[in-house]
Amino acid sequence: MSNVRDYGAAGDGQTDDTGAIQHALADGEGLIEFPRGDYRITKPIVVDLAKFSRTAIRGSGGTAKLIMAGKGPALFFAGSHDKSADPKGFKPDIWQRERMPLLSDIEITGDHPEADGIRLEGVMQPTLTGVLIRKVRNAVHVTRRSRNVLISHCHIYQNTGIGVFLDHCNLHQTIITGNHISYCRLGGIRIQGGEIRNFQVTGNDIEYNNNAAFGVPNADSEPTAEIYIDVEDGTVREGTICSNTIQATYSPNGANIRFIGSGSKGNHRAGMWTIAGNLIGSQATNIHLTSALGFAISGNYIYSGHERNIVIEGSRSIAIGANTLGHNPDYGDKELSTGIRFVDCEDCTVTGLIIQDALAGQSTVTGAVTSKKDGLIELVRCRRMNLTGCQIFEGTPNGLVLEDCADTLVSGCTVLDRRSPRLMEHAIVWRDTAKPTTGNLIHGCRIGTGRRGNLSGTNRAGIRVSENVLD
Q: What is the 3-state secondary structure (H, E, C) of 146-186?
């Protein structure tokens, strides 16, 4: 173990300790210890694994702080691994010198507008545990290529950029687990381009990652998300978002989980993902998928979407399972009108869903945006869609609206307005704005009556209505 104070670091928060820390890395014994203190640096500390060999940095149980008073990352872990995680792809010297760099039990704080926390590049098995990163730009920034990244039990808090930023990198096998990621202005976890595989986000608290806490002028409408994945110029596959609390303060164009694929590429570039067992709420849109292919969304409680709870556009093979969509009952009559909207989608299922609209028929939260939805569940220009076994309650203005949909089946659903007086106009509205559609079925449903009736636009060719129970 090498103590940075033995190499000249003062740790008094005033002295520039950059040179002393770099000296400890170059001439130390691999395990670099920071005793309690505030270590001010003005340039990135470069952990060159090919040069320094196996390295770990430890901050004495969280009592040590790095203050980054310059531009760039406080710690830059640089490796030279350029293959996959297959053992056959490792050069012996790279494995011996570069595997599993560790960073633990330390705080990193920014004191420069362009200070970052940690950068990873070309690294195999980097492991971050018990790290607090705040007041930097991007807390953890992954570039170019890495493998087997593990980020656990960290506090990523109050940063002006992104919490965990995968920036056009080639990255396979990543686990982000057990962290608090909050109050980062441009998003909690963000993937921008690159090639991402085997990406797991599990057991985290991810919240309030937008401009609300920063108040940057004219920046509220900048699109952001707690988890933001944009691969219009990349590809992301094989991922899970499970057992997290994901919530936010409202921001225009905001989302809690946002995926943007590339429909023009044919395979959509974003898919093979599971979103399960999360608590997701209080953004403009809680889950927003664009040009996605192959998602399973189940077992979540999704609440208080200011505009919609779920929006899915231009996507295929999306399975929405047994989720509950509603409100926080502790807030009494302060509710947000919400819903689900599919646009230009194909081959999707909605099964076992429970969804309830605001009892007042509109949002009753002060300052909430006015709802523009036509129904609690809306399908627009969709093909081969199945809605089965869903409970659709208190829809305003309508329960279920289908527009220009073909080969779509609605079966075993309950669509009711239990309010008195009723505010729902129709339980199910089916309309064509272009040519008549075909192959549609409404079967075996319990259909309530609204102020203007129960079914609208269904008494025509192309829609078969059978064995339903109506008021």
A: EEEEEEECCEEEEECCCCEEEEEEEEEEEEEECCEEEEECC
